[in-house]
Structures are given as structure tokens and as C-alpha cells.
Amino acid sequence: MFKSLKNTLIVIVTFNAEKYISSCISEIVGISSNADFYIVDNGSTDNTIKILNEFCLDNLYLVCSEVNLGFCAANNLGFKFFLENNYEFLILMNQDVYFNPKNLFEIFSSNKNIFSTCVLTPLHLDKTRMSFDYNFNKYLNSNLNPNKIYQYQTNDEKAGVYTYVDFTNAAFWFIPRYIVQKIGGFNPLFFHYGEDVNWSNRLHYHGYNFVCLLNESLVHDRVKIGNQFLFNEKLLRRAIVLQLTNINKPFLLSLFLINFNIFKYLLRPRNLTFNLIFIRLIDLYRTYIFIFFNFRKFLYSRRIEKYQDKCWI
Questions:
Q1: What is the pLDDT of residue 142?
Q2: How does pLDDT run across 54-93, given as a tens digit for each residue?
Q3: What distance in Å separates the CA atoms of residue 206 and residue 227, rounded to the nearest whole number?
């Protein structure tokens, strides 16, 4: 273990990121006097590692995995490094995000009475900088109602505005240490996609919130939802895991909702053919086999996420 003089750790997981990583690091390298960088490369086969090494940063800790650990497990290495080395703030940041978070330190320190129980994120824009990133407008939803927009102060006495949101994806999270200590890392039942929703469920269960700073914005340079194939693969199973690990709902209620939604899926659309019914029955069989063999994992997950601090780290 080493002793860092910095109070912030920026964690980035990379995978074949040569298109983005130079711009990503260039945006944040200016705050290096206050932050260390912990980057986990998930077995990139392009020039990602070469580009990272060219930055020649003394405070950049690069972990190179020969295999793809997944977004969840790779970030958990960063969570562990953060806690072991006593940083005050953790920034989780995607490889395709461009944003300099220097204002966030001032905003948080000047408004601890407001943000002490919050994970901060700015507005997420797409690469055109003219529109919200995919789905981000849904995260804001009705929270842009004037009655749900609040003010915070900055050191130059200008007022900023913010709103509470139920969820925002993990493209950029600014997290105080004590929240990490309570919530822990990402649930290893998820490989990629869904882990941030599960973490959000736990955040709310333990009495914390997400806050979107409406005067700050980042660029998320991606196409819609990123890896479309990976997103669609095992979509039903991911939805089941999210439902059964949601500690905000009783387990039996989650089971009921899963069965209800499965049979809704099975019976639509109305013009079902025999082949389509057969395929969906096979999906149904596989789904119940999946639930049966992972039942104990779901119960264990719920128990430790309710009662154990720093879980999954």
C-alpha cells in the first residue's frame, strides 16, 4: 500500500478505447494536482495501452488484464484501491466521456449541507453537444419542473441549480468516501450493463440520492447504448437479476412480477405462430432453469447488500 497526497481517485475502465481515451484523459489531466488516476484495461487489442503510456503521468496507475474482466469486476478493483488508500472522493468515469470535474470539488465543499448524502453528476450530452445523451432525458423526466429545481452557491457567489434524479448511468459519478464505504462496489452477478441500476437501488435503500448539476455538462461520445449486441444478449436474464436483487422490494413480490412479465412476453403479439410459441417456450424453460440454479445467489446478494458495508469489494 502506498500513501497518496491526493484526495481524489479517478477510476476509468478501458476496452479498445483508442478512439476516445486520449481526449478523455486530456480533459482531466489538468486536475492531476488533486487527483490520481486508476485505469483498468480489460484486455484491449488496439493501441489503448500505448496511448495511456504516452501520457507519462506519475500519478496514473495502470492495471492491464489479459482478459476482459467485465465493467463490474474491473471497476471493483478501483473501488478497492480507493478504500485501501484513503482517498476522500471517488470519480467513476467512462472511457468515452469528456469532462473536467474541477468545479465539482468547489461545489461539493461549498455546499456540504446539501450534497453530503448525494452522488453528483453533470448533464450528459451526446457528441454533438446539442442534445442529451441517449436516455438521459428520461433520467431527468419530470425533475425539470421548476418546483423540483433548487439552488446551490459557489465561491464566486454565483448561484447554480440542481435537481434530484432517481438514476443516472455510471458514465460519470462523483462519490464521497463515506457513501462508497456504505454501498460498496458493483454486484458481480452483472458482467456489463445493469450493475449501475443495482448500485442505484442500494443507494436509495440506504438513504442516499443522485443529484444532477444543471450548470455543468459532459460529453458522452457513444452511439446510443454502446455495444448493441452485448446489450441485447441475455437481456431477459439481466432484467430478472435486477428484479431479484432489488432490495427495495420484497423478494416474493419480485418473483411474482417476474412471472407476470414472463407470461406477458410469452403471449404477445396476438398473431403468434407455432414456431414463435415454441421458441418462447424454450426461452421460458431456460429462464426458470436460470432462476433455479441462481436462487441462493440472489438471496445472498440481497442479504449482504442490506446489512454489510463495503460489499463486493
A1: 67
A2: 998 888 999 999 999 999 999 999 999 999 999 999 999 9
A3: 31
The domains found in the chain, sorted by start residue, are: 8-226 (3.90.550.10), 234-307 (no CATH)
Residues facing 173 on adjacent strands: 92
| Cell numbers at 137, concatenated | 432525458
> Buried (b) or exposed (e) across 143-171, using 16+ Cβ within 10 A?
beeeeeeeebeeeeeeebebbebebbbbb
Helical ranges in the chain per DSSP H:
21-28, 48-54, 71-84, 102-110, 112-115, 136-140, 177-183, 195-205, 228-232, 235-244, 251-266, 274-307
pLDDT tens digits along 187-223: 999 988 899 999 999 999 999 999 999 999 999 998 7
Per-residue confidence (pLDDT) for residue 62, from 0 to 100:
97
Q: What does the pLDDT read at residue 2?
A: 46
Residues 305 and 311 sit within 8 Å (Cβ to Cβ): yes
CA 168, 190, 261, 257 torsion-angle sign = negative
- In the three-class reduction of DSSP (H, G, I as helix; E, B as strand; rest coil), residue 23 is classed as helix
Distance CA 11, CA 36 (A): 9
